[in-house]
Records
---
Amino acid sequence: MPSFDIDQIRADFPILSREIDGKPLTYLDNGATAQKPSCVIESMRKFYAEDNANIHRGIHYLSREATEAYENSRTQIKAALGLPDSHELIFVRGATEGINLVTHGLSDRLSEGDEVVLTIMEHHANFVPWQVIADRKNIKLHFVGLTKDGELDLEAWKAAFNSRTRVASFTHVSNVLGSINPVAEMTTFARERGVLTLVDGAQALPHGPVDLSEVGSDFYVFSGHKVFGPDGIGVLTGPRDLLNAFPPFQSGGDMIDRVQVSGTTFREVPERFEAGTPNISATLGLAEAFRYMAEIDWEEARAHEHSLAEKTAEELKSLGGIRIFGESPGKASIISFLYDVAHPQDVGTILDTEGIAIRVGHHCAQPLMDYYEVPATARASFAFYNNEADVEAFMRGMHKVQRFFG
């Protein structure tokens, strides 16, 4: 059984020992990007220092070695995700590119009058690509609202389906509210009605393993930089048969079968959607991040995260004048809030003087901000490597905000 030693875990992340203007770094912007353990950094350094070569093309030793490492990374991540045999894993730049690939591939299958069901809590990455397709194909988008505690209104979501519904696309975990959607129930409901599903898992995997055989979605996407891996890398999974029917998303080297003056034929997935030289080092780093995460006792890690978030929420409320967005039971360790004496930008600026990193603004979720009739919030988001000292530093910073503006 893996152990959960917070001091040892923090020692694995070199950036956590930094000081900002003489103050220890308190990093609470994990919803935007997570920090990287030394093993991930070292895996990428080692590739460039010892193994650097292009893949799928060379017959020399380094190329063969790099190709094997790249494809082993794919195999390792597929196994970690519990990916069904009928599905394939494609490396993309991140969740955003993965969603764009799906909307591009489905565009020829959608006709005027077809409908797509979304939720109001989606990140822009799962809003804008559908809006682009809707404008081009004259399809209808349904945006489903929330309950008072920030959960998806599941009954309203189900009621949005009709005979013209073709796709339902929704987040696994809200990047603003921390609300966890019942994705298995949602994908089952959609599948029974012949509706394709896409799940944005960018905020789910940082809080523990996700078994895609249980999730049951057609497509699932996430970004490497949020799961303690490198930036510029992500994953799209989907049914192999359907992906092979999609037109190429980008064209060029390595995704071709045969190129002639008279025309070109294309390879099947995954190569079909991995044109050109991929981000090899980041792929290896992402696989190393999954290996590292497999050593974490996630039952303890989740309990640790939730304890920190709950304590922070309680202490925030004790200040008075605090409004927290999203208070559903069992939510992920994300706290978005407004303080009635200070604009979120001012809150973030003062906290920064204390070495405290949070996120302020609309969090790439402007429709959700409009839904709540607020321009922005401040957001503290926790990872398993945060500790009690981070909560204490954050609250000292918030008391400084209170003194300055109160």
---
Amino acid sequence: MKLKGLRQLLVATVTSIAMAGTALAEFPDRQVQVVFPWSPGVAYAVSQVVADRMGKELGQPMPVSSLTGASGVKAALDVLNSPANGYKVFDGYVAPILFAPLLGKTPFQCEDFTPLYGVGSNGFAIGVRKDDDRFPDLPALIKMAQENPGELRYSGAADISIPHMVAALMLKNANAPARSIPYNDTGEGWKDFLSGELDFMVLNSGNYKANKDDIRVLAVMSDRPMSEHGIPGPIPKDFGIELGVEGLAAVGWNWWVVKPGTPDEVVDKLRSAMLTALSDPETQSKINELGFTPLPPETYHPDFYVENCASVREQLQAGMEAIQWEKEMTR
């Protein structure tokens, strides 16, 4: 009986291993969902461009599903609470995978995910109304803020958001305090800005494309020699003004990640399909047309994910300190 039982156990084990191997070899045998943390818009369209190209490689559709809430954390938790089988990919932006953990609002850290590749970046810029002749350039705005501490009003979206941090850090480095007015509804912020209630705005490429006839860009918030983020304009360094952050800490970016524990064979298939998609000139062209910049896969490669998380986290911490300085200076 014991020998028979052992044989049955061995047969069952071998069968289980074989079935698992077959399942991995056949991945995916159904659609793979990309979980997007914001409301549908331009960034959503960028994700669908990449997902569509990946789906062709994988032989299965890859729909992008919007799941909003808690500044993107709800979508991250949805993926983490799903099976580790590769059928849910999280479109991870800076806010949910780096900023929210920095604020202690998540049970996870950026490094807790298994990375695929970085996708794209979306730049920020300082913009003023086209008919506002007080600010011919960024130095003029800085000078007015220095001479009138706390009198200039601006919005960087919600309070303690990434665009807010980037602007506050630049203003802190220039000792030019301005008053940030938070808006959870960015539409209301733009309405107040265009009506003259705000002096300047921190805008992204989507805002720029929608309002470019009514605004002037004073500076693209980047440390790169030329704007690569869908917004034309000079950068602070052109005027001798220090931005305070470098690389993609100054812009919105996203890495696609999966739940830790996802089988290596599945991760490899997703990475291979994603690399092909991101390397496709047609995919890159579509992303550029939407006002985003494709991230080079050789740089935003899974091998460099942990290093990128650590670097940007440090810079975001500096941005939080700048916001605290701003609040103290404008009380």
---
Amino acid sequence: MPSALTDIRDQETAITGLLNLLRRRAIPQAMLFTGIDGIGKGTAARRFAMAVNCDRRADQEVHQLPCGACRNCRRIVAGHHPDILHLAPRGAFMRIDQIRALCDTLALKPYEAGTRLAILQGAQSLNPEAGNALLKILEEPPEGTILILTAPQTSDLLPTIVSRCRRVRFNPLRQETIAALLTARKDIDPALAATIAAMARGSYSRAAAMATGDWADRRHWVLAGIGLLEPAAAGGAAVGRLLAFAEQLVKAKSHLEDSLELIKSWLRDLAVIQHAPDKVLHQDLMANLAAEKLALTERELVARYDAVEAAQRALRGNANRRLCIETLVLRLNGLLPATPLRSL
């Protein structure tokens, strides 16, 4: 199994920076790894901890670190090394008692490692009290200790915390990388893997969750229910069926945003397939797209796409969810003008 920092995919700039720190032996006592979830920040933090404490560090080229096979590396991978500390949110927040416990541990000398590392994964979840407590550690970090924080972006943290950390930026993964990982690890059809990769917005963890869940079935349910895979019934029957589907969509609150993004991706593909079929996201449903592509003009597709975006903005502004979605599904089927939702 790959173990070196250089085995982490699509993060050449970030990994090169970390290797340079190891090469120069000039490691800052606090670092902040930023980027969306599911792109390797946590893996990089763990492998950096391994590289710093690798038993074979003196004998290995920096780009080969960590070795992954020595005693320290194996214990860190297993989560059993006493000097590699991991903190994660407890529920929605990382709380002050967790930071206080970390302070107590860091006040002691490392048990056996030359350098102790504390990895705070999801540091954006620090509540205000915990953030201020962590700031005290960053202002006077214990000797022989490195702290690595991970968060989506610097704006999620107190500016005073950010200013005391060396920032390392991680990028979204390429679609090709995600598709290859899905095919190798999840044993799914390459066409479906390519579609999921395109929908995952650069995050492997998001793609993996889609691949192991009922995403393909849910996609069909959303697109068919909203009338984009199958033509709606005529007249009052269409309105009744669509409003019933809108009610189901609203009830599935946790999936609503993803469902709207899915609808947008389908409308996008209906426009793209006419000009650049190789750029279609839903490659596994090309036959369905080809059958539907002439049903709407490009002007109508753009108007419907804009209607979905307007609905998303309205929902973010605390609009009435049911009214917003009911209006949207009718607009997507031409039963109402596809104009922006200004009054919801």
